[in-house]
Design goal:
By secondary structure, the protein is mainly β. 7% of the residues lie in helices and 50% in strands. Strands 1, 2, 3, 4, 5, 6, 7, 8, 9, 10, 11, 12 and 13 form a 13-stranded antiparallel β-sheet that branches.
Length: 296
Amino acid sequence: MKDLPVSGIQLLSKEAASQVDLGPLTRLQGTWQSPASPNQGWNVIAVPGPAGDGFVLEIIPYQETLTFSPVVVAGNRGPFVGGNETVQSIVGLLYEQVITSVCDNAPCKQRGFPSGTQIHAETGLFLNLTNQGAGFGIARLSTIPHGNSLLALGNSSQTNNPGTGFIPDNSTLPHPNPNPGLDGYFDRYGPPFLFPNFDTGNPNAFLRTAISAQSFSSLTTLEFSTANATGGVLNIPFIKSNIDTTQVDATFWIEELTGGGLQLQYSQNINLVFPPTGSKVPVNWPHVTVNTLRPR
């Protein structure tokens, strides 16, 4: 698009948006959903439990609707250098995420997450930093009703004929290890699993299983982290003093299937810090979500 705003923001019509180069974000446009069967979305999180229990490990299968629209363009003014003003042009996508439990077992019901319960809502922006991104080409801005907001910077890559081995392991185990008196905390992450088809300790294995019989002609990878450059997480006081959210890392894989069609997978780690029951040692508890979605 020729006439990007020097300052301010524009929400573009569908026709105008087709003229904007979204770069690696291009194929995100539209609405994505996880299939009703078999379930593809999983939430794993450890939270403080009742006295004598230490903590509760929550494993919640979920369905998701993730919508990217419309295209946003913005311009940032900078200083004059050599008589020329430094201007940054940004294009991106507004997004909305809604996640609903599909868990019917007793633990989910007891914890208040029976099937049909909305367990997460999020809005924000994915941005393509077309120039002067300080070494980062993409950004994610998010707001969550719990009282969190984040800025995660990152980069993208594209691969042709990527195979299916591009998804790494992802551990949900707390770190550093609690003191010896709390070794039993790890027991709940191992077998017997509450869901036999889901590896509680490595949720990314479920993503690999979902694509094991598929073939892809191309792959776009988006990697974000609040630990990059000026990124970070902000929390309301209650969260800060009880279960502090310190870092968010997420990878999105936009997969073009051989023969046509798109698929979106992601794996996200949210680092939570709180002293476990009976200990004054802070422990980092990964909150992991993974899903496989297809265009609606």
